[in-house]
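Give me structure tokens for this 745-residue protein.
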Amino acid sequence: MRPRETTWPLFRATWDGLVARFGDDEIACWVAGMLRLVDVNAGPSCFVAFWSLCATHPADDGIAPLIAAADAGAEICRHAGAPAATAAIAAAPTARRLLGLPAMPRWWQIMENLAREAPESVGTVAKHLIEILTANDVDDFGHFVAAGLKAAAGSKQRRLNFFALQDELARRLIERPAAGVGFAETEAATKAFVTSLWGVPPLLRNLPTDLGQTQQRRVSLAAPLIRMPAFYRGVEGDAARALYKAAAAHAQAHLLFGGPRFPVGTLKPLQLALVTLIEDARVETLAMRQLPGLRRLWAPYHVAQPNGAATAPMLLARLARALFDPAHPDDDGFVGKGRAMFQAAQSRIADPTLSREIGMLLGNDLGQMRVQFNARTYVVEPLYRDDGLGLWDFGDSAPTSKETLELTVSAARTEPTEAPDSRDAPADPNAADDAIARARPVAADPRGTVVARYPEWDQAYGIERPDWTTVREVAARRGDPRTIEHALDQAQMLRNRIAQLVRGVRVGRPVRLKRQFDGHDFDIDAMIDAGISLRMKRDAEPRIFRASAPQHRDLSVLLLIDISQSTRDRLASGASILDVERLAVAVLAEAMDALGDPFCLLAFASNGRDDVQVTAVKSFAEPYRADCIGRLAGLSSGLSTRLGTALRHAGASIAPARTLRKLVIVLTDGEPSDIDTAQTDLVEDARRAAAGLRRRGIDSFGVVLDPGGITAASRIFGRGNTMLVPRVEDLPGQLSGLYFRLARR
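Here you go.
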């Protein structure tokens, strides 16, 4: 190492530290390991990573782990190259901290095997090691790597996506151990608990995880079996143990107090869901008559409140709570009618047919209310109840346990239709099969096209509810671009000032490049090194020049525009807040377009968790032209501000950008709010969404127009990443100035 002037001091410091802590025989073994790295040409970066590992290694652990790291690093380098070996050695302290010293030989073995079978993936695994190892042990890590190799089926790109955690299966495999407590850990205690209730041992079985299903799984009944999810996402520790007990007790109540399975017949999906809900309430009522303490077990999961949008899933959740707790206040007419009908039938509560009678009547009423019910997205609430499959007789179209009730209902129930002249047509024995195979036209949802679903933080229970919010892309309405152009003409002084800033940034400061093959000047340090090499009779490095190059900009920006109802407010000048936002965005867009920075403009508003509307004013792929200006002019105010979901969608939109820096700027006039949840919950959820962006290397910044919202914005983005604009009229200049400051960070 002595001739390597850049690495010699580091090597010497490492050597002195090791010699002071270990004996001659141990040092000799260490030297042999170090020479193996040299023999495979691991390179200076790998050496530096290894020395850093040695410098931080506790002396009490002995020198053997360092020798093992050198041997494994050499093996990885031999199969996957020096960068992979460097990444693995650099990740070793993280692995030791999360797994413990005894697990390190196994960890190195897994990494060596990965280098042999998927050399391109070693660096990716090392980069995402913290996420992969969180709440995992070394065996789980081995299972994860093996699953990735198998799932990729030899595809290099699929392996990279898997180990970069961009694959759904990879995220589920990490999520499973992170849940901590699942069916395997609770099976014995849950079985003993249910047996103690009624003296009948339940037949509990594990419900295999459906990795293609995004919704939270529910218990599935297949009498006499009770099939339980492998785990409940987002529910950990004692909360998971309590949930398994509540779910198993509810399922056993169905087996003890239920009747024959209901025939599906010609019932509509909404009626099926309501009959299932009534049957759930009926068997729970009978169970609580025998064991009143069950109310305390099930009550915490009934959280529906008598407010928010009157959607079908919300009304069903409210009805479930009203039937469970007669004292719970809810003045909704539909909920009140369902409660009254159920109370009136208490004299025949043991008769299962009342569930079908009440459910069909309520289904007709709800259908006349014109509330929307999407059978494919509806999920039974509350969480501890089963999916309802075991209550229905589907005949020859009986579903498997992997299917949800809603998907089964819409697929299994077919109603024959007859054309006007069908009696004259010959019978076709394959007609039924053809009808099933053909796609049927579906009316477009007036709320927009569903493009994504995202989780949301539940502050009350301290859990993240997966796939809780739905983002819908709403087609932009085209306005008159001349209104924007006229506003820009009125702000000509501001445009001139921004143009000067653009010219300054485009010229930028030159970057000095040393040790170049050619250039306008000599590099003194490089010349000295070359002279030393010549005097030592060695080949001199020819890169002895110094050059300059313009500073390279590598930044992409997504501007997230709040167009909620409050932006309709008028200012003293007569313009609305949205008008000022349009002007500010137009000025900034001109600047970014002139700089050549990739940018995207998204507007958002919300109407409950199932209707978070996003309008694309400009995508990253399209140029900023008159069409984009027209969409900007066509934006209108309305609805609420579910900021956390919008931030997650912004992160998903900007993540593919191939730039070093990614920046999301949120332009909002107040705190997050929506019609179906508390404001404090949305603030905490937005804070977590912003933190998630930071973990992905995406910067976020909040620009707030209302002084009342600065506290919430500071909590969401951090005090240093929040700017208050007290006078809305100053927004165009303030926003552009902010962008230029952030672009120089």
